[in-house]
TrEMBL record, chains A, B:
Pfam families: Rrf2. Coiled coil: none annotated. PROSITE patterns: HTH_RRF2_1, HTH_RRF2_2. Gene3D superfamilies: Winged helix-like DNA-binding domain superfamily/Winged helix DNA-binding domain (1.10.10.10). This is RrF2 family transcriptional regulator. NCBIfam families: rrf2_super. It comes from Nonomuraea harbinensis.
Amino acid sequence: MSEGVEWALHTCLNLTWIEDGRPVPAAVLADYFKLPPAYLNKQLQALARSGIVSSVSGPRGGFQLARDPRKITVLDVVVAIEGPEDAFQCAQILRDAPDGEPGIDYRETCVISQVMRKAELLWRAELAARTLADVKATVESRFPGTPNETRQGLRSRRA
Amino acid sequence: MSEGVEWALHTCLNLTWIEDGRPVPAAVLADYFKLPPAYLNKQLQALARSGIVSSVSGPRGGFQLARDPRKITVLDVVVAIEGPEDAFQCAQILRDAPDGEPGIDYRETCVISQVMRKAELLWRAELAARTLADVKATVESRFPGTPNETRQGLRSRRA
DNA sequence: GTCATTCTACTCGGATAACGTGTGTCCGAGTGTCGTCGG
DNA sequence: CCGACGACACTCGGACACACGTTATCCGAGTAGAATGAC
C-alpha cells in the first residue's frame, strides 16, 4: 500500500484540530512531519478531488477539511489515495482454462474471487466504520495534550 | 496485490484434484491457464519455499501439494507469494513530529496504525479461516463436473 | 536373460533483462495582500 | 483622508524525471529413466 495513505491520514487528523476556519498550506503540513512538501501537496490534491479537503489558492491559502470529521471515514481517505479498486484483482484466468466460457463473468462465479472479495469487504467495512472524529476522540482521551501541541506546532509554522 | 496470487491459488486448487501421487510439471500447470510457464514456475518456487508444495526434479518431476488441503489456508498461499508484511506499513512519521520521541514504538502507540492493523487482522482472519479443502468442496458442490474436467485437462497435457 | 553403465532428455532453480507504478521534483496559473498614487 | 490601481508574493495544480518492485525470460545443475553392452 502506498505510503501516501499514512501521510494523508495523519495530515487529515491534524486538520481536525484546526478550529479557526483558516486553511493550512501544504508546506506547513509537510514540515510538521518533515515530509517532502511538493509530494504531500500531490496527495492533498487527491484528497481535494475526492471532496475530503477543500483547497484555496493564493496568500493565506492552503487546505482545510471539506466537511465534518464525523462524515469522513478512514476508508474515504484510503480510497482517495489508493483508488477504488480492490487489492485483489480477479483477472478471470478461468476463461483461458479448457472449459472456460468467454461469456461468463468469473469475477462473480469464481469461488476464489468470492473468498478474496469477502475478506476485502470485511477490511473495508472496518475502515468505513471508523470516522476521523472517532480517531480524534480516541487520541484526545489517551493523549490529552495532543490537540494543543498540534495547534501550536502548526501555528508556529504558518507564522 | 500481485497477480501471481491468483495464479497460485488456482494452481494449488487444481493440484487438489490430482489424486495419484505423481507430481505435475510447471509447464503443464501453466498451459492449463495459458500462463507464461517460466513465470508460473517462479511462483511455484515461492510456494515450495513456504512448504505449501513440494518439488521434484528430473523426468516425471514437477510439483505437488506438500500437505493435506485441509491444512493449507488461503492466507498461507497469499503470504507465500506476497510476503508476510502488512499492506499498510506504519513508517512512524510521528517520530518526526514536534513532540515525537525516538524511543517510542509508534507502530503500537499510534491510533491510526492500530485502526489499520485491526482491519488487516480481520482480512487475514477471514483468509486464514478458508482452507483449500473448503474451496475445493464449494466448487465441487456448485460445479460437480470440475474435478474430472481438471484431471482430464491436466492429464492430456502431461502425456 | 540380467545387471551395470552410459547417455539422454526432462525438470527445477536461480540469475538476468524489460516494463509499469509509485515516488519525488519543478515550474506555471491564479489570487489575495500590501504599498502607492491620485483625487 | 479615502479609494482605486498596480505590483508583488504566496499557494495550488498539473507536467516532468527518477527509482524501485513486479513481470517476464533464459540457461545451467541435477536427476530419473531408457538404451546399450558385457557377462
